[in-house]
Structures are given as structure tokens and as C-alpha cells.
Design brief:
59% helix, 3 domains, 392 residues, PH-domain like, alpha+beta, Rhomboid-like fold, 14 helices, 3-stranded antiparallel beta sheet, single chain
């Protein structure tokens, strides 16, 4: 647990902008609940919301609305959606661009999303929520730092999120401010194209990758084969990971229920219908996530590895090298074991919540035991790994 706490604290320190935005959103929602818990939970505007939301008619005389409106949220689903966005995609982009750029993107998108209503909106339009700032982050994620790890996955996630948000705003105007969302995304795209390249972040990532590779090669040199009777391990999710998955599923389902409750108070029939569909869809996503997030058990022993979802076992003779690594970026990095096959193909097994470096050492020790059992030597190949050599 101590190792987990240290790793988590280091990652939290790495994303100050994303975490600050998320904390301000949560703190503000706490104030909304304190003033009118029932209506806030049901997704109805309260007097507190009207006092601090952005309303064009009052923007010049009450300038604090520019700053407070982005952190107000209309309902639990609105809150959970935006907090998840900034913690996942926001921290992902902060990892590659740096904290200052992310803060600039969010602030520019949020302010532009409000300002557009001074031009095209009505004087009494009510604008609240962090969505415009988050759309700016999403827009920038599409066009910036294409050489970053998992940049392709990040672009697809950002594009899908923007498209879903805009479509929801069109289909259910009562649930989304279309002008703010589109403006925020366009601002993010523009800033993403003109922001200076994140040379410091890129250099840091390269240095960290080199150090991780060197540390692993050094650690491998100290690994000894296990006694044959101990050379077996069943990889299953840790309790912490199971709790995290369960909590995520609960939050997704709560968001779906919140959308469904809010549909009752929407007077526009079309918006209410879309809200019901979105509620059912969200609950379905939660159930699907529960099914997909369950990591299958994998058994490692001297014969190789066998997984619950694999058609056939993988023999150690098919594996050239293994190494610990990450398959995600940002605050929610997930550890995994990477394997390079003899034919050059690669595959990955998620660490299921285990300390990935310790897990890699244990699996490598089992593999060395298998090599010894098969009469193989310990000559190193170009991967810094043991090379197969049958003793005469």
C-alpha cells in the first residue's frame, strides 16, 4: 500500500492544472448542494445558480460571473461527465503539453464559450458548466503533439467526445449550450495549431523512457530462477482495482439515473426524449464497462501462460522478451507486461492493479526457471534477455 500511495502522490503532483479544475468543480458543486440540495440533485436551476451563472444582461455589471459560471453544474450527471473528462483527457493532454498550456486552453475555451452569447445569444440566456473549456482541451488534443505516446488514441477519444457533446446539444438544447460547445472546440483547435511545441515535456518523456529501460535491464540482471515448485503465479485483479472498477461503474450508472431524473423537469418534449435515451445509453455503458473491465485471469508457470479468454496457451519458447510498461497516459496510467514474440509480434497483458515492476520480476523469474528446466543457457541476446541455447 505504501508503494501505491507514493506512486499516486507523484502522479497527482504531475497534473496540477487538471486536478485544480476538477477540485474547483467539485467544491462549487458542494456549495450548490449546501444551498439547495434537492433541486441541485434533480437538475433544476436554483437561486444560487442564477446568482453566479453567466447571463449576458448582467455580465458587465457583475463581472465575477465570467469566473464562477464555468465551475457551476446543473446536475450530478453534468458534474460527473465534466470531472471525468478533465481527469482522463485533460491529464492525458497535460502529460504531453504541460500544465501551463492546459490551463490556457481551458481558460480561453471557457471565456470564449461565454463571450459568444454576447454576440449571438439572448440577454437572459443562462450559461454554466465547464464544457466550453473542456471542448477547447478536446479540440487541442486533436491537433497537438502527434508524436506523443498514444497520440492516435487520444485524438480519437477527443473527436468522439466533441461529436457526442455537440450532437447532444443539437438534439436536446435544454441539456447543452451548443454555442459554447462549438466555440470552445474551435478555440481549442486554433490554439492547438499555434501553441509553441512542448519541448520540455517531450524531453522529459524521452528521458523517463530511457531511464525506465535502463532500470529494467539493470533489474533483470539480478533476477534468479525460482525453485521449480514455486515457479507458478495466477494473475488476478487486486482488491484495489476491483474497487476502482466498481466505483467507476456506480458513477456511470448514477450519471445515467441523473439524466433520467432531469428529463422529468424538461418542458421541451424533444429534449426530454433525448434525455431519456441518453440516460438509458449511459446506464448501458456502465454495464458494458463492468463486463469489459474485468481482467481475465492468466496463469504463468514453467510451461508458459494460459488465459481465461485465450484459445490456446502461449509457450515460453514463443517469447523472446518481456518488459514492464504503461498502456495509458495521464492520471489513469495502467501498468502492463509487454511481450515480444520470436516472430517479432508483440502482445500485452494488463497488470490488473499489481505493481508492474514487481510483477515483471516475478514472471521473468518463472521464465528463467522454464529455460533452466529445458536445459537452456544464460547467454544474452540483443534485447538484454536470455537467448535460447540447448546444452549438449
Amino acid at each position: 500500500m505504501a508503494v501505491l500511495d507514493v506512486n499516486l502522490s507523484h502522479r497527482l503532483e504531475r497534473f496540477p492544472s487538471s486536478l485544480t479544475i476538477a477540485c474547483l468543480i467539485l467544491l462549487t458543486f458542494g456549495l450548490q448542494l449546501a444551498h439547495d440540495p434537492v433541486n441541485t440533485l434533480l437538475g433544476r436551476l436554483t437561486l444560487f445558480d442564477l446568482q453566479y451563472a453567466f447571463i449576458p444582461a448582467f455580465a458587465s455589471e457583475e463581472p465575477w460571473r465570467w469566473l464562477t459560471a464555468p465551475f457551476l453544474h446543473l446536475a450530478p450527471w453534468h458534474l460527473l461527465n465534466n470531472v471525468a473528462f478533465v481527469l482522463i483527457l485533460g491529464s492525458w493532454l497535460e502529460e504531453d503539453l504541460g500544465s501551463l498550456r492546459l490551463a490556457v486552453l481551458f481558460a480561453a475555451g471557457a471565456l470564449a464559450g461565454e463571450a459568444i452569447y454576447l454576440v449571438v445569444g439572448q440577454e437572459l440566456d443562462i450559461v454554466l458548466g465547464a464544457s466550453a473549456g473542456l471542448m477547447a482541451i478536446g479540440g487541442a488534443a486533436i491537433v497537438t503533439e502527434r508524436r506523443a505516446p498514444f497520440a492516435g488514441q487520444r485524438r480519437r477519444l477527443a473527436g468522439l467526445t466533441i461529436a457526442a457533446t455537440v450532437l447532444l446539444s443539437i438534439g436536446a438544447p435544454a441539456l447543452g449550450a451548443l454555442g459554447a460547445h462549438v466555440t470552445g472546440a474551435l478555440v481549442g483547435l486554433a490554439l492547438g495549431l499555434i501553441l509553441p511545441p512542448p519541448l520540455r515535456a517531450r524531453s522529459r518523456q524521452a528521458a523517463e523512457a530511457e531511464k525506465a529501460a535502463a532500470d529494467w535491464l539493470e533489474a533483470k540482471a539480478t533476477i534468479e530462477p525460482l525453485p521449480t515448485g514455486d515457479a507458478a503465479f495466477l494473475l488476478q485483479p487486486t482488491r484495489q482495482r476491483a474497487v476502482a472498477v466498481a466505483l467507476t461503474v456506480v458513477l456511470i450508472i448514477v450519471a445515467g439515473i441523473s439524466i433520467g431524473l432531469q428529463s422529468v423537469f424538461i418542458s421541451d418534449t424533444t429534449s426530454a426524449t433525448v434525455a431519456v435515451v441518453a440516460a438509458v445509453w449511459t446506464v448501458g455503458i456502465g454495464i458494458l464497462f463492468w463486463r469489459r473491465a474485468r481482467v481475465p485471469s492468466v496463469r504463468f508457470d514453467v510451461t508458459g501462460m494460459t488465459g481465461d479468454r485465450w484459445r490456446q496457451a502461449i509457450q515460453w519458447s514463443e517469447v523472446k522478451s518481456l518488459y514492464p510498461g504503461r498502456v495509458w497516459s495521464g492520471l489513469y496510467a495502467m501498468g502492463a507486461l509487454g511481450f515480444i514474440r520470436q516472430d517479432g509480434k508483440r502482445f500485452t497483458i494488463l497488470g490488473a492493479g499489481h505493481n508492474i515492476r514487481s510483477l515483471a520480476r516475478r514472471i521473468e523469474a518463472i521464465r528463467l526457471t522454464a529455460n533452466r528446466a529445458n536445459g537452456e543457457g544464460d547467454r544474452l541476446n540483443g534485447w538484454g534477455d536470455v537467448e535460447r541455447r540447448t546444452e549438449p
